[in-house]
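FW: tagging you since you asked about this chain on Friday. Here's the raw sequence from the shared folder, copied in full. Didn't touch anything.
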Amino acid sequence: MTRRRCGLLVAVTVVASCALEEAQENGELGDALPCVPREQQCRGDDREAVCARDGLQWEIRPCGDGQSCRGTSRAGRCQDRPVGARELEDNFDATVQILRADSNKCSAFLVNDDTVVTNEHCCRAEAEMCVGSRVLVQYRGREQLQSAPEIVIEANLGSFPELDLAILRASGSPGATLGHVAVARGRRFLGSPVYVMGHPQGRPLEASLGRIYAYEQSVEYEYTSGRKRKVDQFVYGARAEPGSSGSPVFSATTHVLVGLHHSGGLRPDSFDLAPSDVDEFGSLLGATDSEAIASALEAVGVAFEEEIQE
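HL: got it, structure written out here
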């Protein structure tokens, strides 16, 4: 078991991190060559970077029509978009906000027509705490979708403290209108770009770009409320502030769910990561891996869309 220190529970804010990318594009990497000749990297969903034959600069070019930049690590290239491939917009409406009766807020997301996933700590470790809570849809700056029905949490289908995961049933079938996320199966995202999407401080939907730096089978976090052990974790970089506990973490190349955000303020050196390993992030975030989320959904009999990562 590994013990990590972190600050108060914080969740995600949103500021894209581009300093390293700009430095690479400009060749500002000191005396070392900026890249390996003919090496390729994704620079977002619609651009690829190819290292020049002399290794002295990156050549940035957009993907063609019907293509996106796809890869499972720092490497990636423009490829034809598979039939049925997910898009960034597919995750907008499926990411929602839970507003409890005591006015506390958490982010959450739909995994099918009537099932919502969030952090277990958002329900205060009590199975019925979130029951009766309203679910709000706040899409990209709009107050609330006019077409969205009133959504209420009707039941807690399962709480998993070691995953910081709560699986909730919502009234009606909001996912039939709003859509739902697709859950990744398989841990193949180490080093990959990801983004976390949620409602920091209860604001309308925002997103923050980052990267996965380490997987951990078991972590003991130290919070102000005491120590909590969590399993099937990964550590990633992105910006964070309170209010987005329960936010989904997505692959930036495939847009499938790769994790459930729950904690912030993690020290990189606690995970044997040097400052140079974590881009410009001074502290890191903790999330529960999507493979564990998928297993928990199966355990309580909840159907969901899965995508197996090869």
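FW: The mean pLDDT is 81.
HL: agreed, and The helical segments are 19-26, 174-178, 290-299.
FW: great, closing this out.
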